[in-house]
Every structure is written in structure tokens, then in C-alpha cells.
Specification:
With 217 residues, this protein is an alpha+beta fold. It has four helices and eleven strands; from the N terminus they run αβαββαββββαββββ.
């Protein structure tokens, strides 16, 4: 059986048997060891180079303060990429896999997926124009206060975050993503560990925050 066909079947099974049920039941889910060490390292090294070369800019606020940078509210530095840039082959591969996963989820999520999606690395826009937001929290207690990724109903459906932090110790380094699922009596803490891919609703069902980071995240 061709490798491409095997990958398609595996991605479809993961989407339909795991991602869709989890999103409907609890509003989020994650996959560990998603790319594997070798490919994950390629993504990490490319992102490190962007950071080292000063390609990242302060993140801007959405909603009423759209386009405004307020470091005490949002401390990350970001860059939007499409995956076709020079040296971004591994990122493009990651984007392609996430694109397929979201496509397989399709109408089972209750919304049309072609309206756009958000993946930190975060992915956004219609399926054929998927982009990644590379995001770095430089430490020193930087984080992102409680917010909603899509507060204005602009069509984004799912936030997908791929984490690149090796040897991350949340007790020492902080940086946990805390989700406040709408209507639930609990919060969900997700550690930003290397090669973890996280999915959650982008709209008001999932307010969330990035707790202060004390190492580069």
C-alpha cells in the first residue's frame, strides 16, 4: 500500500475517532509525538533562526484594541509565514498535515471548515491558504492574559498549536496554556512540551491564557 495512502488513512482515523469526539465532548485535545524528533527538530531549528535573526515582531491585540501592542497583556513576538519561504520545508510539511486533519474533521465539527482556521506555531485562513503564526515568549514573566482567539465571529473555527519547547519543566519555566471551557466547572492546563499538537475551539467556548514564562517559550 502506498505510503501516502497509509498516511491519509491514519490522519482520517485520528481526526474522526479522536479529534472530533474530544472537541465535541470537552472542547480540546492534543496529540503528542506528532512529527517525531527528526522532523520536529527541523521545525525548531527554522523557528530558532527566525528568532535569532530578529524576524519576529511584537504580537498585536484583537477585538476593540485590534492592532495595538500592549506588552503587559500580550508578551509574545510573532511572524506569519505560509510555509513556502526558503528553508521552511519542514514547516510546510507540518502545515500540510494539519490542513488534512482539519479537512477530515470537516462537517462533523458542526461548522464548515473552509471558513478558516487558526494553528502557534498558529494556523489561519482557508484550507488552501493556510498560514502559521510563529510565536515566541522571550521569558522574563511574559505571557498572554485571558482572551478568545476569535471574539468577533470572523469565521475561524479551530485553534491548533504546535509546541517546540524541549526539556520544558512547567514547575520551573511556567508558560502553561490554561483553558477555561465555557459552562464547565474546571480549567484545563496544557504544558507546552516539544512535538505536541493541540486543538481547541477558537471562539468564545474556550477563553484561555498563557501563564507567565520564565524561559524562552
Amino acid at each position: 500500500m502506498p505510503l501516502g495512502h497509509i498516511m491519509r488513512l491514519d490522519l482520517e482515523r485520528i481526526a474522526l475517532e479522536y479529534i472530533v469526539p474530544c472537541l465535541h465532548d470537552i472542547g480540546f485535545c492534543y496529540l503528542d509525538n506528532f512529527l517525531g524528533e527528526v522532523v520536529g527538530d527541523c521545525v525548531l531549528e527554522r523557528v530558532k533562526r527566525m528568532h535569532r535573526d530578529g524576524e519576529l515582531a511584537d504580537g498585536q491585540l484583537a477585538g476593540p484594541s485590534r492592532g495595538v501592542a500592549k506588552r503587559h497583556l500580550r508578551g509574545d513576538q510573532i511572524k506569519w509565514i505560509g510555509g513556502t519561504e526558503e528553508g521552511c520545508e519542514a514547516i510546510n510539511f507540518l502545515l500540510t498535515l494539519i490542513d488534512r486533519l482539519v479537512m477530515y474533521c470537516g462537517s462533523r465539527l458542526g461548522k464548515k471548515t473552509e471558513g478558516g482556521h487558526l494553528v502557534e506555531l498558529i494556523f489561519l485562513q482557508p484550507l488552501s491558504f493556510l498560514q502559521a503564526m510563529v510565536a515566541c515568549y522571550p521569558g522574563n514573566g511574559t505571557g498572554y492574559v485571558r482572551h478568545v482567539d476569535n471574539p468577533n465571529g470572523d469565521g475561524r473555527c479551530i485553534t491548533c498549536i504546535y509546541y517546540l519547547n524541549k526539556n520544558w519543566d512547567s514547575k520551573l519555566h511556567g508558560g502553561i496554556l490554561r483553558i477555561f471551557p465555557e459552562g464547565k466547572s474546571y480549567v484545563a492546563d496544557v504544558e507546552p512540551i516539544f512535538d505536541r499538537l493541540l486543538f481547541f475551539w477558537s471562539d468564545r467556548r474556550n477563553p484561555h491564557e498563557v501563564q507567565p514564562s520564565y524561559a524562552t517559550r
